[in-house]
Amino acid sequence: MVRRCPGAPPICQTPLPSNDERGLLPALRSSAIEAGTWVVLPTYNERDNIGTIVPAIRAALPDAVVLIVDDGSPDGTGAIADGLTAADPLIRVLHRDVKEGLARAYVAGFDVALVAGATCVVQMDADWSHPPSVLPELVGRIEGGAGLALGSRYARGGGTEGWPLTRRIISRGGNLYSQLILWLPYPDLTGGFRAWRAETLRAVRPATIDATGYVFMIELVFRAHRLGAQIAQVPFVFTERRAGASKMSSGIFFEAFRHVLLLRARRILGRDRR
User: Fold this and answer.
1) Where are the domains of the chain?
2) What pLDDT score does 211 carry?
3) Which residue from 31, 55, 183, 253 lies 20 to 30 Å from 273 (Cα-Cα)?
4) Which fold has domain 11-269?
């Protein structure tokens, strides 16, 4: 369910883009905000972070719309987000009553941004692991002609801070596995810090990806690469979340392992979706 944000400009329903095959999006469109850069920020129990990360994003990208996609957080994140909209018309909230996972939250946010006429769509986490200071460079790569700009922990100049050795091994190993199986030249496939040209995002059809965990991120890059999109890499240092609990689980890890093999099989058989 989508509720109008307090203090926001009038919202009207508009038809979905033809590539949205689900027909489920309650589209938001503002007569005052119809284009430019949109930052999609999924949240679930991010009460301790949302009040600081959103102003930092707005400072980094003063002309961008920040769309908070909250999956009914029981800790009151949605109410805090509503309060932020009252003071800033470039902050929006998409309230979803059911927690369906990160992938579905991104799909919903992408759809809203594209229907609203966004030319560049950024995706990032709300827990401060993705530094807002890198946002201008990501968006700049799109403005310079890239179809997708990947924030990369593993490109030269990137890195991670605050991770135990086990997590570093799992992350690097999972990315290397995906890179080798799918024949992709990008060392960071599972990260969620990215900027998309609107046309590229439409072309990869996120709503048709079945995966719900980090493999959703992998398949997005896989599809963009297969379509011949220009993909840039922007190094950044990933910092462990400031507050709250990580959403990572063993189920997400094993889903990625299986799904990457499936993507490879589809490619060999010529059945992958282009």
Assistant:
1) 11-269
2) 81
3) 253
4) Spore Coat Polysaccharide Biosynthesis Protein SpsA; Chain A (3.90.550)
Q: Strand, helix or coil at 174?
A: helix
Written as one letter, the residue type at 190 is T
Instruction: State CA 104 to chain mean position distance.
Output: 10
> To which residue do tokens 């401060």 refer?
128
Cα 126 to its chain centre, rounded Å, is: 10
What is 16-37 written as a DSSP string?
A: PPTT--S------EESS--SSE
- Summarize pLDDT for 49-108 with one digit per residue, the tens: 999 999 999 999 999 999 999 999 999 999 999 999 999 999 999 999 988 889 999 999
The token pair that represents 125 in the structure block: 């986490």
Q: What is the tens place of the pLDDT at every residue in 154-176?
A: 999 999 998 888 888 888 888 99
Element housing 91 (H / E): strand 91-95
Do the beta carbons of residue 85 and residue 93 sit within 8 Å?
yes
Count Cβ atoms within 10 A of the Cβ of residue 105 and give its class: 0-12 exposed, 13-18 middle, 19 or more buried: buried
* Rg of the chain over all Cα atoms, to the nearest angstrom: 18
Q: Which residue has the tokens 């950024």?
A: 122
Alpha carbon distance 232, 235 (integer Å) = 10
Closest to 122 measured CA to CA, from 64, 203, 175:
64
Give the Å distances, CA to CA, from 187 to 55, 100, 159, 182, 202: 30, 28, 12, 12, 24
